[in-house]
Amino acid sequence: MSTDRELVDAVLAKRAGAFERLVREYQGLVWHIVQRMVRQPEDARELCQETFLRVHRTLHQYRHDAALKSWIGRVAYSIALRHLEKRRIEIADIATGAEDDDVGLLDRVDDGFDLEAASADAELARHLRSAIETLPPLQRTIVTLYHLDELPLADIGAITGLAIGTIKSHLFRTRLQLRQMLESRLGAIA
Question: Does 68 lie in the same domain as 9?
């Protein structure tokens, strides 16, 4: 986090190239979050710009209590979420919402579906990507942040503002949903 502090201090001190360095370092994360939520390339580009404008205007509010990556991710997520809400796009499948009773079960139960292994087979990977695209924005974002970007649950929680139990619930139910989609397309999956 010392590099986070140095980068933030440099941007706040208006050192030449500091904000550009921040954008270069985090533009991939911002693009992934926004694009996974919004799906429309033109809207995603505009929302990414809006994210960095907001980061620039509010960076003085960053308190170093979380990684800069999580804070910027949270800004991107909030902007994309607000965009979807304005357009009245359902962000989550209500059936996959977390219930308190599920959290203990989710900690102990493995659904047996290995998303990473499934993506190794080219045909299966193509079908998996297609199935992921059909997910509502929240589930699509959570599953890709966890399995493809390999972010820890705590970072996903910091970005989305969701409790870790809720994220686990979304992951568990989304993996089951993906497994069912793939089985219906390809037959039984080992």
Answer: yes
Q: Among 36-40, 141-145, 157-161, 181-185, whose mean pLDDT is lowest?
A: 181-185
Residue range(s) defining the domain that contains residue 28: 2-86
Q: How far is the C-alpha of 31 from the C-alpha of 28, rounded, in Å?
A: 5
Are 128 and 176 members of one domain?
Answer: yes
For the chain, the distance separating the N- and C-terminal CA atoms, rounded to the nearest angstrom, is 41
pLDDT in tens, 139-170: 999 999 998 888 999 999 999 999 999 999 99
127-133: list long-range contacts, CB under 8 Å, 24+ apart.
127/182, 127/185, 127/186, 128/178, 128/182, 131/178, 131/181, 131/182, 131/185, 132/178, 133/39
